[in-house]
């Protein structure tokens, strides 16, 4: 487009556009939607001066049909049209997650409608009719550049995923790539998702990433933990209550469904919810209506439901509720099943922890990584973060070494196969001889270190010479018995 020649004196009604400076000529694709054929011809003629490809539609329905085969950088639509008007078109585009910038055209005196569309339906901007050519060209160019920025951001996000990062989720392993794939499929929809995984695997992080990728990303994200609430309070927490509904209800309170209206609600540890409460929840999911405790009427709610559980998929859930929630299912692997991701996860954690605590820790020592790769991580990524956070504070600068790890990390329980019971524990009882406990503990640690005596000595906090002496004592005891 060529706007510089004519930019000197824009009409008064477009005085607000004076703040916009001419942009370099850009190319792009524009969909024009208007039932006025003469208006369409005028807009096409303006855009024909630049490297802009256009398609036209005479109402919202035609526009949706065009979008099946044409991917525009910008959509320009009139608001008032027979059939599907501009309001309905923008609403449908928003619901299906289409982020294409939309410029709305409005007649004289309809400024309030135009502003409402910009605010409520996320239109890019508006122009009054008759359209002033220079203002139209500048706005189209800015919208095209905005589209390019969005696409570059999406491409960067996709690239980061391939490199092992999706939002706050980290991991290059095949198991994590499968998780990312389902998140990318489910995110842009409004379908329910059931997220399964052990405690500490990052179920809420997955839920937040789904919300960020959804058409509801600008709406609220509300999380409620069913396991943390007593049965007597969970109904009030979910659905709200009126003043005086029960003892202690001194004021009206909106529930989670109301607070999440227009956004996403995460029901965490849903398997802990009582069966009677599950039945009430199912009804809300089917009717999209809630009734506060003590209330007389129902309230419409528009909420996307995500549910999480640390139990097996479907365990402790009513069958009908399970099928209602299980449109998409994401199963997060425990950390012990993708330990190859630990170096990358640790690197990302260290970056965040250095900012949080003002430390300058650069990396994990190879011996620490070797130890981490053999540990069972019952607390999963949450436990890993706690161990690294403590070690980073102790180390302060440089690398995290074995001596920076918490003592309990080297307990016999972490050794894996140290006890007669086979569960990694050194069994003791009243009258148990300390020398016997020491022997079991040291041998378990040595086995855990892969028979690397230097590593085992560091893990135990003793010198290599002391370890060798104790091992000789154990052999002598064995030969005398």
Short structural summary:
The protein has 481 residues and is an alpha/beta fold.
Structure, explained:
There is one protein chain. The chain has 481 residues and is an alpha/beta fold. The chain folds into three domains: 147 residues, 3-Layer(aba) Sandwich (Rossmann fold), CATH 3.40.50.2300; 171 residues, 3-Layer(aba) Sandwich (Rossmann fold), CATH 3.40.50.300; 144 residues, Orthogonal Bundle (Helicase, Ruva Protein, domain 3), CATH 1.10.8.60. The chain contains 17 helices and 18 strands. Strands 2-1-3-4-5 form a five-stranded parallel β-sheet, sandwiched between helices. A five-stranded parallel β-sheet has the order 9-12-15-8-16. Helix 12 packs across helix 14, helix 15 packs across helix 16 and helix 16 packs across helix 17. The protein is globular, with a radius of gyration of 31 Å. The N and C termini lie far apart (95 Å). The N terminus is likely disordered.
């Amino acid at each position: 487009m060529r706007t510089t020649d004519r930019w000197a004196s824009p009409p008064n009604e477009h005085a607000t556009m004076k703040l916009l400076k001419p942009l370099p000529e850009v190319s792009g694709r524009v969909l024009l939607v208007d039932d006025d054929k003469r208006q369409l011809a005028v807009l096409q003629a303006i855009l024909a001066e630049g490297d802009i490809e256009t398609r036209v539609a005479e109402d919202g329905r035609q526009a949706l049909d065009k979008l099946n085969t044409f991917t525009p950088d910008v959509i320009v639509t009139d608001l008032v049209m027979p059939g599907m008007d501009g309001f309905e078109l923008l609403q449908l585009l928003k619901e299906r997650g289409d982020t294409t910038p939309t410029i709305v055209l409005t007649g004289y005196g309809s400024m309030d409608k135009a502003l409402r569309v910009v605010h409520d339906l996320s239109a890019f901007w508006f122009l009054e009719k008759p359209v002033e050519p220079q203002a139209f060209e500048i706005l189209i160019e800015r919208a095209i550049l905005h589209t390019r920025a969005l696409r570059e951001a999406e491409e960067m996000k996709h690239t980061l995923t391939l490199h092992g990062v999706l939002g706050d989720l980290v991991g290059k392993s095949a198991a994590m790539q499968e998780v990312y794939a389902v998140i990318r499929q489910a995110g842009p929809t409004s379908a329910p998702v059931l997220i399964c995984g052990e405690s500490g695997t990052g179920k809420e992080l997955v839920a937040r990433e789904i919300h960020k990728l959804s058409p509801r990303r600008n709406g609220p994200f509300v999380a409620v933990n069913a396991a943390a609430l007593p049965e007597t309070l969970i109904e009030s927490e979910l659905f709200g209550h009126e003043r005086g509904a029960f003892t202690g209800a001194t004021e009206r309170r909106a529930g989670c469904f109301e607070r999440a209206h227009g956004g996403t609600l995460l029901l965490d540890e849903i398997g802990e919810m009582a069966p009677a409460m599950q039945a009430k929840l199912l009804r809300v999911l089917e009717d999209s209506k809630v009734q506060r405790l003590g209330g007389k009427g129902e309230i419409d709610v528009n909420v996307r439901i995500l549910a999480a559980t640390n139990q097996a998929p479907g365990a402790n859930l009513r069958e009908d509720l399970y099928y209602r929630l299980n449109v998409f299912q994401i199963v997060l692997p425990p950390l012990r099943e993708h330990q190859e991701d630990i170096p990358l996860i640790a690197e990302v954690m260290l970056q965040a922890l250095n900012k949080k605590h003002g430390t300058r820790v650069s990396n994990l020592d190879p011996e620490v990584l070797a130890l981490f790769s053999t540990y069972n991580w019952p607390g999963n990524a949450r436990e890993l973060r706690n161990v690294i956070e403590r070690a980073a504070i102790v180390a302060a600068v440089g690398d995290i070494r074995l001596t920076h790890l918490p003592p309990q990390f080297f307990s016999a329980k972490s050794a894996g196969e140290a006890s007669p019971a086979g569960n990694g524990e050194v069994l003791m009882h009243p009258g148990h001889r300390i020398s016997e406990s020491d022997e079991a503990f040291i041998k378990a640690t040595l086995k855990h270190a892969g028979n690397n005596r230097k590593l085992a000595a560091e893990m135990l906090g003793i010198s290599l010479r002391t370890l060798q002496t104790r091992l000789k004592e154990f052999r002598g005891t064995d030969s005398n018995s």
